[in-house]
User: Fold these one by one.
Assistant:
Number 1:
Amino acid sequence: MNPSRQQSKLQEAKAEVLSLLKILSDKVDLERKLGVNYLQLDPIIKNNISQEEEMISQQPVPESVCDNLDTYNEDTKVELSKSEKIEALSKLEEQVKKCTKCELCNNRTNVVFGTGDQDADLMFVGEAPGYYEDEQGEPFVGKAGQLLTKIIESIGLKRSDVYIANILKCRPPDNRNPNANEIVMCSPHLIRQIEIIRPKIICALGTFAAQTLLDTKETIGKLRGKFFEYQSTKFLATYHPAYLLRNPGDKKKVWTDIKKVRDFLQE
Ligand code: SF4
């Protein structure tokens, strides 16, 4: 090959590697915003990375990206059987029960990990445990929880048919709103739960769950009732049951939203 052709081939290869690194860097940035503190590669990116380029991806990444790598090192792209999901969630729960990544560990009675069918098609995500949830170690057990059970039953399902979890696993004092640090520290637990369960649809309950998972500051009033995608999973947000207890006039809107979830599951 003559030297100028060799030079042009080299430049083409360099441009391709730079473009792949840009895709990877954008993805890491996006996931960091969502609170993912470990590196995961989309199959599309993975397939496009040649052996030589894969060596580049294996080079040390910034420390913040590696923070949880030792904790969550399973291949998140492999579809698990139900028994594998049960085992993976149980292992994860043991880890989360010991979590001290934010100051909420200091006053918790229980870590509220999540409950329900580990192989559920529908997963509800709320904000954070309240008083009763902290006492019992289970999400949505107070009055808001009873209302959520009614909402689930209104579409012909039982509570045990779905999986329920929160963004935060420990109760904020006096049920105050979660702060940004707590959300960033705790979100990887939820993201890992979603990766294991792989529901067909996620229904976010309330502002914090919707804004955190969609990485937006848009109000729940604007987000609710519309389909979005969260990491290739259908996503719909609606009002939190606790909000409905204070604003019963908006119950109709939630019935409308939840019927969309039902219709999607029946498609
Ligand atoms: S709220 Fe989440 S990050 Fe904070 S201590 Fe509890 S489990 Fe850990």
Number 2:
Amino acid sequence: MLLTRAFDEKALLLQRQGRLGTYAVSRGQEAAQIGSALALKNDDWVVPSFREQGVFIALGYPLHQLYQYWGWDERGMNIPKKFSILPITIPVSAQIPHAVGIAYALKLRNEKKVVACYFGDGGTSKGDFHEGLNMAGVWALPVVFICQNNQWAISVSRKKQSASKTLAQKAISYGFEGIQVDGNDVFGIYKVVSEAVKKARSGKGPSLIECFTYRIGDHTTSDDASRYRSKKEVESWIKKDPIERLRKYMKKKEMWTKMYEKQLKKKIGKQVKEAVERFEKIPKQNPEEMFRYVYAEMPWFLKEEMRDI
Ligand SMILES: Cc1ncc(C[n+]2csc(CCOP(=O)(O)OP(=O)(O)O)c2C)c(N)n1
Ligand SMILES: [Mg+2]
């Protein structure tokens, strides 16, 4: 969780210095992301949206490749073979039908693997969400839908997103279980996701887990959240910071010392520094690359745009 926070903080600085592109911070959502990722087995499938750096980091994804992706170079999502992760999906909820397709294939092949599919509260308003969850229920597929309800979809609040009392309850209409869990409690998330994964692996079908959490930062580096939400609201959630909660718990259990955190932060600082150095040494891609592979034959308007770069 601390590594994810440090990765994010560095990403923000790099973006402000023009060394990284638009970036979506995950501050406040570390428990939901790391707790859920750790409940998976190595060869389970992970289908992310765009704010899940904590999931990638918990699974051991190379940090420099994550920076590379956010640094305008999609080769950062050239997923090394040992990972069963799909590339980051920017279009909201487009990944949900993909996750369900993978789960369907796993079922047909009788492979005892599970798919973890991530999306946000805003993602539940998309048709893809309904289509995906509906068929996952009909076919009793091995998929765990993990909704990080961080209360905001850019400037649209959770209340404006859906009249449902909870997002978890939407699962009822698809014929499977939905659970709302404290998204800032890493142990709670781990437990609930572990149970859903076990259920999916044993052929008992999908689950929807709503992690009730908060996006402490702006939506992305292109956003200014102070224009649509109050300081008071943000401060009330800073008090529930998942890392602070874990620290308090560990202190109480005498599992934490100042020295432990100091050493951990030193190690993390080194990891992040090395990742940035490695990312910045990668030769820059030719900007023409982004035009080349969209169509078999490049249309005139792309040719025109390409001439202008
Ligand atoms: C199909 C589509 N429409 C609109 C956008 C612009 N957009 C990017 S993120 C976002 C809000 C997503 O909110 P949520 O699902 O709650 O995820 P969060 O950003 O809170 O993690 C929108 C509307 C997009 N990326 N894709
Ligand atoms: Mg959201």
